[in-house]
Amino acid sequence: MTRISTDILVSGGGVAGLAAAALFGSAGFRVICVDPAPPVTDEAADGADLRTTAFLQPSLKVLREAGLWDRLAPHATELQVMRIVDAGGKTPAPRITRDFNAADVSDLPFGWNLPNWLLRREMVARVAELPNVEFRPGIGTKSVLTRDTEALVTLSDGTRVSARLLVAADGRHSPVREAVGIGARTIRYGQKALAFAVTHPQPHGNVSTEIHRSGGPFTLVPLPDRDGRPCSAIVWMERGPEALRLFAMQEAEFNAEMTARSGAIYGPLTLITRRTLWPIISQIAHRFSAQRTALVAEAAHVVPPIGAQGLNMSLADLRVLLELCRGAPAHIGEAAMLEMYHRRRYPEVAARVTGIDMLNRVSMQGAPAIRDLRGAGIAALYGLPPVRKTLMRAGLGVRLG
Predict the structure, then answer these.
(1) Which residues pair with 161 in a beta bridge?
(2) What CATH fold (topology level) applies to the domain 77-113+190-279?
(3) Is-contact 222 81, C-beta < 8 A?
(4) Are the C-beta atoms of residues 167 and 29 closer than 8 Å to each other?
């Protein structure tokens, strides 16, 4: 049986895991990254992740340090304005619209939007450039045994890896989290999200629009033009039975339904990709660390897709973990370092999970009285400039004093 050693073993080769491999590899650490499923890097291929990720301003530094931003920037669409629309009246027509403009708090846009399948493509290419990083797609983590001095990981091909630090980036059902005995608190909403891309006649103007009515938000996020037509990614959250009904619709009927749900703000919407369906939960691990092990991304926390928080929280995990590793490279993976990682990340993540949970519950409500309160709240918060700017900074992930 082959046995090898490394500084860091990243279990999970999704967007967060590949970002971790690129980040730690770019910092000079020896990294092995494994995932049982090879990444799908073509939009048209079966299994392609048609969701998009909006990288907010604080994530830009992490992407640059990982050597990823130069690859991603040519494909990214700027998000200059975050538009909140309440369509809680008798019809889906917008009745309250408020724009949060990044220019009020920064010289940069709020963020940059990219398709997840493209992120995987560019991240795989970046990892391949790094001589100290080994990516093993199609190979998973079979078992984990931790000691004071190392994490001993047996891979699905029989290889045994001795790592100073094991990074669990293996998703919401994390086998590594289970192996090291960390539980998680999960909140289920009975919701699902449809994710797909559309074209429309009216330009999006680099505005990301979140429309609230019932069942959950309907969000349009700018993408580059497609065949000369403005293009947006859509995440449409609904209660489970309604989401399944929409998923099964014939395309022409679906186009009409989603145009009505959007309030036709960009004119008729035309589906240009297949529809994908994702369950919606909130989840937070009881701890973010164990012996020789750090939990990151969805192994540590999961939130509904509201406010572009999910992957940005994941990159914040990686930023803190890298700072600690760089600060004491001789002590990577030791108990004191991992306890500091947990203390720095857990309170902030817990607060964001709680906040997004509350926002999602409010967005789901369909009762007219609750809709009216939601609309009044949007108008009131926007109408107070100091509150509006504080909310924008908090949404970006900026730590507030």
Answers:
(1) 4, 153
(2) D-Amino Acid Oxidase; Chain A, domain 2 (3.30.9)
(3) no
(4) no
The pTM score is 0.90
Q: Where do we find the tokens 């529809």?
A: 275
pLDDT tens per residue, range 45-59: 888 888 899 998 889
CA atoms of 347 and 219, how far apart (whole Å): 28
pLDDT by residue (tens digit) across 108-121? 898 999 999 999 99
User: Is residue 71 a contact partner of residue 130, using CB atoms and an 8 Å limit?
Assistant: no
Residues of the chain with CATH 3.50.50.60: 4-72+114-186+283-361
Q: Which residue has the tokens 């109408």?
A: 383
Instruction: Determine the straight-line distance between the first and last CA of the chain, rounded to whole angstroms.
Output: 53
Q: How far does CA 115 lie from the centroid of its chain? A: 11
> Can you read off the two tokens belonging to residue 273?
């990709």
CATH fold for the domain made of 4-72+114-186+283-361: FAD/NAD(P)-binding domain (3.50.50)
Residues facing 241 on adjacent strands? none
Extended beta strands in 57-103, E state? 77-79, 81-86, 96-101
